[in-house]
Amino acid sequence: MRKSAFIIPVLVVIVIGGLSSLFVVDEREKALVLQFGQIKAIKEDPGLAFKIPFIQEVVKYDDRILSLDTDVIEVTPSDDRRLVVDAFARYRIADVQKFREAVGVGGTRLAEDRLSSILNAQIREVLGADQVTSDRILSTDRGELMVRIRDQAREVALSLGIEVVDVRLKQTNLPSQNLEATFARMRAEREREAADEIARGNEAAQRVRALADRTVVETLSISEKESQITRGEAEAERNAIFAEAFGADPEFFAFYRSLQAYENALSGSNTTMVMTPDSEFFTYLKSETAK
Predict the structure, then answer these.
(1) How many angstroms separate the CA atoms of 4 and 2, rounded?
(2) CB–CB of 138/165 below 8 Å?
C-alpha cells in the first residue's frame, strides 16, 4: 500500500510534466521558447513542439498580415496649406526573434505604438517635402506618395522585426477652420472664370452678329443690283419688242396700247367715268376701222 501510494503521485507528476512539455504551433502563428527571458528556440513551422516543463515558457505571435490605424495628424505641404491626414497600414511580423528583442514583454501593443510613430514621421517627411503641394496630395499623385511612405517606413520598421506591407491615406482634408476660407476662394475663382467666359462669349457673339449683319447687307445689295440689271434687261427687251411691233404695224400697235389704257382705266369694281360722246379715249370702240 505504501509503495502504490508513492507511485501514483509520481505518475501524476510525470504525466503533468509530459503534457506541459508539449505545445502546438498553429499555421497562423510563430512561437518562441523562452528560458528565464532568454530565447532558446524559434518555432515557425506548424505542428507539435517540445519544451522543458516548468523552466521554459512559450510565447506565440500572430503570423498573419495585421492592420494598424494611425492617429490623425496635420501636415504642412510646400504650399503652406495644412492638411489633416488619416492613414492606415498593413504589416506582419517578419523576424519574430528581432521583434521580441525590440518590444520585449510589451508585445504587439508596444510594437504598434512604435510603428504608428514611424508611420507618422514618414508621412510628415514625405508630404512635407519640397515640390509636394496640397494639390498634388489631393490628386492622383497620392498613389506615388503612399508608395514612398511605405518604402521609407518599411526600412525603419525592419529594426522592430516588422515588414510594412502597405500604407494607405484614407483621408486628406483641410482643417475645419480653413474650409470656409478655401471654399470662398474657390467660389471667387470660379465666379471670375465664369465672368471671363461670359465676356468672351459676348465678344464672340458680337463678332458673329456683326458678320451676319454685314453678310445680310452685302447679300441684299448684290440681290438688288442683280434684280435691277435683270429688270433693265427685261424692259429693254420689252421696248425692243414694242418697237419692232410698232414698226411692223403702227395701227395694230396703237390699237393694243388703247386696250391697255382701257384696262387700266376701268379696273376696279366701282369705277365711274364721265366723258363727252366725242371723246378720243374710245376712238377704237366707235371707229369703223375697229369693226
Answers:
(1) 6
(2) no
- Name the fold adopted by 66-174: Tetrahydropterin Synthase; Chain A (3.30.479)
Question: Would you say the pTM of this structure is higher than 0.70?
Answer: no
d(CA 116, CA 88): 9
**β-strand 162-173 against 29-35: which pairing, if any?**
unpaired
The DSSP code for 160 is G
CA distance 90 to 172: 19
Distance of CA 17 to the CA centre of its chain: 67
CB atoms within 10 A of CB 168: 14
Per-residue pLDDT of the chain (291 residues; tens, 9 = 90+): 555 555 666 555 555 555 567 788 888 888 988 888 888 888 888 888 877 887 888 888 898 999 999 888 888 888 877 888 889 999 999 999 999 999 988 888 999 999 999 999 999 999 888 788 888 888 888 889 999 999 999 999 999 999 999 999 988 877 766 556 666 777 888 888 898 899 888 889 898 998 898 888 888 888 888 888 888 888 888 777 777 766 776 766 777 777 677 667 666 666 666 666 666 666 655 555 444
Q: Which three cell numbers stand for residue 275?
A: 366723258
